[in-house]
Write a structure and sequence with these properties.
Layout: E1 8-16, E2 20-29, E3 34-38, H1 45-53, E4 57-65, E5 71-74, H2 88-94, H3 119-132, E6 137-141, H4 149-162, E7 167-171, H5 175-180, E8 184-187
Helix pairs in contact: 3-4
């Protein structure tokens, strides 16, 4: 493995689970940059993110990460938190996220149990937890799922601010959302 100055670098990555479903895919992500993986459903965008995080098998090529890199990953289909008696404040504390900076519109969610939140409210808290955790790279898989228009606008603001201090890798089918972030688009196609 060659060391790189990039936060993350994919070099002709072919990844999947039982077999490779994505690749070859090559791109780099640097601090201060937003990269959006773009492609049709089933093209392997989530698989590429999972390969970076170690959850998908690398069949060929490489995933290189800067030594000591800290990553937070918001999954498209996260584990259900419905039966876990956590409040919004406790979720943010577990990720060392900044609850004090949570926008006023989301502050009431801090005292509520996660099981009481709507899908969109839970999504916003989970994305906030990833974006404000003390990490170098934030990976967001469909962060706008279940989120209303006001929440999407809020996410755009928070993600745009996050790029000041870290790299952001995201998957979204919302082209306007991606373009509003001025993200560099990497097209992903199924093998």
């Amino acid at each position: 493995m060659t060391l790189s100055s990039h936060c993350i670098e994919l070099d002709h990555l072919e990844a999947g689970y039982d077999r490779a479903v994505v690749g070859p895919l090559s791109f780099a992500l640097d601090a201060g940059e937003i990269v959006a993986l773009w492609g049709p459903n089933g093209s392997g965008k989530t698989t590429a993110m999972n390969a970076i995080g170690g959850g998908a098998r690398v069949f060929a090529g490489e995933v290189r990460k800067r030594p000591g890199l800290r990553v937070s990953h918001q999954h498209q289909n996260p584990l259900s938190l419905r039966d876990i008696p956590l409040s919004g404040r406790e979720l943010l504390a577990l990720t060392s996220s900044d609850a004090a900076a949570l926008p006023a519109s989301l502050q009431p969610l801090l005292a509520r149990r996660l099981s009481e939140l709507s899908g969109g409210q839970l999504q916003l808290l989970q994305v906030w937890a990833c974006l404000t955790a003390p990490v170098d790279v934030v990976m967001l898989d469909e962060p706008t799922n279940n989120v209303d228009a006001a929440g999407v606008a809020l996410l755009q603001q928070v993600i745009a601010r996050a790029r000041d201090s870290r790299g952001v890798l995201l998957v979204s089918h919302d082209r306007r959302f991606v373009e509003a972030l001025d993200a560099r688009i990497v097209e992903v196609y199924r093998r």
